[in-house]
Specification:
- The complex is a heterodimer of chains A (113) and B (114).
- Chain A has no helices and 11 strands.
- Chain A is an all-beta fold and 113 residues long.
- In chain A, the strands form 2 sheets. In chain A, strands 2, 4, 5, 9, 10 and 11 form a 6-stranded mixed β-sheet that branches.
- The N and C termini of chain A lie far apart (41 Å).
- Chain B contains no helices and 11 strands.
- The termini of chain B are far apart.
- The chains are: A mainly beta (113), B mainly beta (114).
- At the A-B interface, strand 5, strand 9 and strand 10 of A face strand 5 and strand 10 of B.
Chain lengths: 113, 114
């Protein structure tokens, strides 16, 4: 069964700063590694995902860095904005065919104005 | 339309009641999921349907009974629940099981068992 660790548990960043959230998985996986963003009272929404054969992917202010040998990947939010305040979950594919994604415990990000 | 809808938004039920949660998507997705999310915790996978067939049951107690009447609908039938089953129940869909990393979530049904 896939195990996913995520840090930090909570993060406070000033507006315009860089938010960095780290994730580590245990079992070798062959599918995409996504990050989800969840606002209070809403369901999670896919933010960005990366294939394990790519070391970095950037979409706007959001960048995923992937280290396959270390089984780690991280989310960088550049120029953080108060509207980015949310809970962020990384996820790693689990099961025999990667259909059941296992979510990390989450990071609660607060961006101060 | 990239929306997954869930009804009801809130549900309060007693331990002897029978109720159902409903989920609907019109994106043509062929994989649908039920998750349970406790406060300040990540979503926990309960069931996966692929092409209207149950493909994954994460050892969920039988008091939770999923049903997929067609490719757009997913139900979760509830019976004899316990107070510890109180949680946010999320439905999600993806294009297919191979695209499960890209799931579209509904807003959830907040369930309280009294």
């Amino acid at each position: 069964q896939q195990q996913v660790k995520q840090s930090p548990q909570s993060l406070i960043v000033q507006k315009g700063g860089i938010s960095i959230i780290n994730c580590a998985y245990e079992n070798t996986a062959f599918d995409y590694f996504p990050w989800y963003q969840q606002f209070p009272g809403k369901g999670p929404a896919l933010l960005i995902a990366i294939r394990p054969d790519v070391s970095e992917k950037k979409e706007g202010r959001f960048t995923i860095s992937f280290n396959k040998s270390a089984k780690q990947f991280s989310l960088h939010i550049m120029d953080s904005q108060p509207g980015d305040s949310a809970t962020y979950f990384c996820a790693a594919p689990g099961g025999n065919y990667g259909q059941n994604f296992v979510f990390g415990p989450g990071t609660r990000l607060s961006v101060l104005p | 339309d990239t929306e997954v809808t869930q009804t009801p938004k809130h549900l309060v039920m007693g331990m002897t009641n029978k109720k159902s949660l409903k989920c609907e998507q019109h994106m043509g997705h062929r994989a649908m999921y039920w998750y349970k999310q406790k406060a300040k915790k990540p979503p926990e996978l309960m069931f996966v349907y692929s092409y209207e067939k149950l493909s994954i049951n994460e050892s969920v107690p039988s008091r939770f009974s999923p049903e997929c009447p067609n490719s757009s609908l997913l139900n979760l039938h509830l019976h004899a629940l316990q107070p510890e089953d109180s949680a946010l129940y999320l439905c999600a869909s993806s294009q297919d099981a191979e695209s499960s990393y890209e799931q579209y979530f509904g807003p959830g049904t907040r369930l309280t068992v009294t």
